[in-house]
Write a structure and sequence with these properties.
The complex is a heterotrimer. Chain B is α+β, with helices and mostly antiparallel strands. Chain B contains three helices and nine strands, in the order ααβββαββββββ. In chain B, a hairpin with a 6-residue loop joins strand 5 and strand 6. By secondary structure, chain C is mainly alpha-helical. Classes of the chains: A mainly alpha, B alpha+beta, C mainly alpha. Chains A and C meet through helix 1 and helix 8 of A and helix 4, helix 5, helix 10 and helix 13 of C.
């Protein structure tokens, strides 16, 4: 054991410890988002199709009244278990403006098609603000990605959404809530413009699941994770194959390297 | 220079085949890896999901008058849907196909005799032929006339005169109702 | 003198255009010190990452739209609709981080083993130039998805130029092509982001030419003395590099497939909004140390100068460290200062990530909000607080001060420590040659001889 290797090891420990501190230490004043268990986490994570459908039900019956989801198309719903015809029916329920004018040069509305993007509740940001007391309901397509905790080991976007939806309640006695605002334990600053959107039995689930607030929040959080990271299942499956291959390749390369270097002293 | 010995003594042929096999395995694994990485790159250039979603369209044909046609965009190209008059149908069906440059019966080119569905791209050099509207020149055979090099098509979209080698192409389509046709 | 190739076609071409002889000379028989350790793998890994970034980048550019109203959605279209688009983008996005990890290790390897010393000064300077080009490229690439962090990062960084006296504002307007970061800015950043990697590639070629002039440095840091000290690059270092590449790819794959967004900022999944700034603007991790140095100096112009100097000082490093011994292995005092520099850069990263007025209490179990620290210290406000403070009996330090101390050490290492060490440090005895390594019993005479003249043929 040379001094050199001791120094090397000691330094590695120090630098490693510093690295852990980066992750662990965060400035004060933030809220702790509780971490939940999700089927889509981990190396073999996958979405629960029934849960995604329930989440879609909540989105379409509750959220979509105010929140747009501009990056999703109706055709994407085939990936969570809707048939082609069901998707057509879902899309046809909304009226969308045609891309091109008719022969008279007038823009016209037509029933939605699977290739259309999800219909937005408001035509523009100003209209959305006007209808919501000046607050803008954010687009939900990427909500689960943009609200995730920072860094490696941060909470998932689904954790945040679940916490927010279940975090409404009475404010502490010494807290003054501004007019038009609502108290929420997990929202930054604890005052949120959105009134509590979900209660027990806000929806009646088609598959008979009991619609508790916790269940609804989990379902919609899962659905929003899927809309943000639709590629996740394919990604993790591909990753498994890639890593397995790389391990085999690396072992082979190591064996070859050993053979080549056998006679070098 | 290169023939001088480096620090390493050449080791004879002991274990040579096993070593060769190991190198071969490593190289093969590497080649497999490179090939499987190449595929996503190539595949990314193929039509994406949003493009594929628009690869079939449904067209409302209820407002087309006999003798007229409409042009819609399908997969980035003009698509002709023409409602033929009984005379045009008769003219198309009565042609002796032995005389044709690209022999095809009218029956092979339409599903319902009244409706002619074609890709409006001249088979010569890719111009868009005229004649979809009755106000446009339709050529000697009453079908389509290509303004670029004078190719003339009949009321079944078959090439009759001019430089084009083939008939106007018929896209895959189905009637999804009395007044709607799904193309693609 | 061209070699004798067996293949007649190769021979015919090589006689007229000696590319095969060149490749054979530079990548096959190229004599390499036989004692290189695994820290020497990072050069080829950096080359691999450059190629990976160019390849993924070209295919992403086929799908990307550089326009403020479409850029964000075109990136999301890549993620959602383009076949394997998510893979290409995550490879590219995490590839930037991997590239910097590899290059930083490569740089620290050079710092420890004295690879910047004569006759490799130009080789080192070309490397620093590559680092600068990489930073510019990474910064402009980060703007392209046009998320909140893209936009505000671009705003903050381009505004650095406004610190230049007299012409600063004019330069910023020129960079923007308007009066704020906007469509012209995005367009030119895309054009330059596409161009720069090829400039980097060209400088890498020069880097390799300079490297092969005197050959690789090695862990002992003494020159090769003949054939007994070297082995041909192929198959020895090709197999070693491929094995290292395998290990590295497993690490890379982990991020790409299982934590693709962990190294990025969640705010960049919110489309750019010129009317609202995110709460914390933090650069990507690889810029954090430089960002910390920038913020440590309270003056705008001086901050920018300090940040520039932190890289510029690397250009003159070969003339600051006058010690004739290259390898840190034989420099008992240097070694400690070196590892402190590594630790210092880690501290700078930590500082760059956190708000400057935060009281960091490394030994506290719970984070104390700033107000409570102020209250516990019994002063009116945070500014009146002693910079190193006790709150609830636990030692704490203001991030700003920590950053200033770390910045001080960073520059002191180059300007004070290295020049002084060159004078006062007594290096350990150097081995006579690579083939007769360190003090393995016997050979005392040889060792003494080596010690008597530690200056290698420079």
């Amino acid at each position: 054991m040379s001094i050199r290797s001791l120094v090397l090891k000691a330094s590695t420990v120090v630098v490693g410890a510093a690295a852990v501190l980066f992750i662990a230490a965060e400035p004060g004043g933030h809220v702790d988002i509780p971490k939940e268990d999700w089927s889509f986490q981990g190396f073999f994570g996958h979405y629960d199709r029934a849960q995604l459908k329930r989440g879609f039900q909540i989105y379409s019956e509750v959220c979509s009244g105010c929140h747009s989801m501009n990056l999703m198309s109706y055709r994407n719903l085939e990936n969570i278990g809707f048939t082609e015809d069901e998707v057509k029916d879902i899309a046809a329920k909304v009226q969308v403006q045609n891309e091109d004018p008719n022969d008279a040069g007038e823009m016209f509305e037509r029933p939605g098609k699977p290739s259309d993007h999800f219909h937005a509740p408001f035509p523009n940001e100003q209209a959305a603000r006007a209808a919501n007391n000046g607050a803008l309901p954010p687009d939900m397509s990427l909500l689960a990605k943009s609200r995730a905790g920072k860094g490696f080991g941060g909470y998932a976007g689904a954790d945040y959404i679940h916490a927010l939806l279940t975090g409404y309640g009475e404010p502490p006695a010494d807290m003054k809530i501004n007019p038009g605002m609502n108290y929420n334990k997990y929202f930054k600053g604890h005052q949120i413009a959105m009134p509590q959107p979900l209660q027990d039995d806000s929806v009646t689930y088609a598959d008979g699941t009991k619609a508790t607030l916790d269940q609804e929040s989990r379902d919609v959080a899962t659905f929003l994770t899927w809309t943000a990271e639709g590629e996740m299942e394919q990604r993790k499956k591909t990753g498994l194959k890639a890593v397995l291959f790389l391990v085999v390749f690396t072992l082979l390369a190591y064996a070859a390297k050993r053979k080549v270097w056998k006679n070098v002293h | 220079m290169a023939d001088q010995a480096h620090a390493v003594p050449k080791d004879g042929h002991s274990g040579g085949t096993r070593r060769e096999f190991l190198y071969l395995m490593t190289a093969a694994a590497g080649a497999y890896g490179v090939a499987s990485v190449a595929w996503p790159f190539i595949s990314s250039m193929n039509p994406s999901q949003d493009v594929l979603a628009l690869s079939s369209i449904e067209v409302d044909i209820s407002s087309i008058q006999p003798g007229e046609g409409i042009t819609v965009k399908w997969r980035g190209k003009p698509l002709f849907i023409r409602r033929r008059t009984p005379e045009e149908i008769k003219a198309a069906e009565s042609v002796n196909i032995a005389q044709l440059r690209d022999p095809q019966t009218d029956k092979d080119r339409v599903q319902k005799p009244e409706w002619l569905v074609l890709i409006g791209v001249c088979t010569h050099l890719g111009c868009v032929p005229q004649g979809e509207k009755s106000s446009e020149p339709r050529g000697e055979y009453g079908g389509y006339y290509c303004p670029c090099h004078g190719s003339q098509y009949d009321t079944s979209g078959r090439i009759r005169k001019g430089p084009a080698p083939l008939n106007l192409a018929v896209p895959p389509y189905t009637f999804t109702g009395d007044t709607t046709v799904k193309v693609g | 003198m061209s070699k004798h190739f067996k293949n007649p076609v190769v021979r015919w071409i090589d006689h007229r255009l000696p590319v095969f002889s060149y490749l054979d000379h530079e990548a096959n028989e190229y004599p390499t010190p036989k004692n290189l350790n695994y820290w020497w793998n990072f050069g080829s890994l950096a080359g691999f990452m450059l190629i990976t970034m160019i390849a993924t980048g070209i295919f992403l550019a086929m799908q990307y739209t550089p326009h403020v109203s479409m850029a964000f959605n075109s990136v999301e279209r890549i993620m959602r609709d383009v076949n394997f688009g998510w893979l290409l983008r995550y490879l590219h996005m995490n590839g930037a981080s991997m590239f910097f990890i590899v290059v930083y290790i490569h740089i620290f390897r050079g710092l420890y083993f004295g690879s910047y010393k004569a006759p490799r000064e130009l080789l080192w300077q070309l490397g620093v130039l590559i680092l600068l080009l990489m930073m510019a490229t990474a910064f402009m690439g980060y703007v392209l998805p046009w998320g909140q962090m893209s936009f505000w990062g671009a705003t903050v960084i381009t505004n650095l130029f406004s610190a230049i006296p007299l012409v600063g504002d004019k330069i910023v307007t020129l960079l923007w092509g308007g009066f704020a970061v906007d469509n012209p800015t995005l367009n030119r950043f895309f054009a330059l982001h596409y161009l720069m990697p090829f400039v980097i590639l060209a400088v890498v070629m020069l880097h390799i030419i300079a490297l092969h002039r005197f050959g690789s440095n090695n862990p002992i840091g003494i020159d090769t003395k003949g054939k007994q000290d070297t082995i041909p690059f192929h198959p020895y270092y090709t197999t070693k590099d491929i094995f290292g590449l395998g290990i590295f790819l497993i690490f890379y794959a982990f991020w790409v497939f299982y934590a693709p967004n962990a190294l990025g900022d969640p705010d960049n999944y919110i489309p750019a909004n010129p009317l609202s700034t995110p709460e914390h603007i933090v650069p990507e991790w690889y810029f954090l140390p430089f960002y910390a140095i920038l913020r440590s100096i309270p003056d705008k112009l001086m901050g920018v100068i300090a940040m520039g100097a932190s890289i510029a000082i690397l250009f003159v490093l070969p003339w600051l460290d006058r010690s004739p011994v290259r390898s840190g292995t034989f420099r008992p005092v240097f070694k400690w200062f070196f590892w402190m520099l590594v630790f210092d850069c880690a501290i700078l990263m930590f500082v760059g990530k956190n708000p400057p007025d935060w009281f960091w209490q490394p030994f506290a179990m719970h984070v104390t909000p700033a107000e409570e620290v102020v209250a516990a210290a019994g002063v009116a406000d945070a500014d009146a607080l002693w910079p190193i403070t006790f709150a609830g009996g636990t030692l704490g330090i203001k991030i700003l001060l920590l950053g200033q101390l770390a910045t001080l050490y960073y520059f002191a290492y180059f300007i004070v420590v290295l020049p002084l060490l060159s004078i006062f440090e007594t290096p350990k005895r150097l081995p006579l040659s690579i083939s007769e390594p360190v003090l393995k019993g016997g050979g005392k005479a040889a060792v003494a001889h080596a010690h008597s003249k530690p200056m290698e043929k420079a």
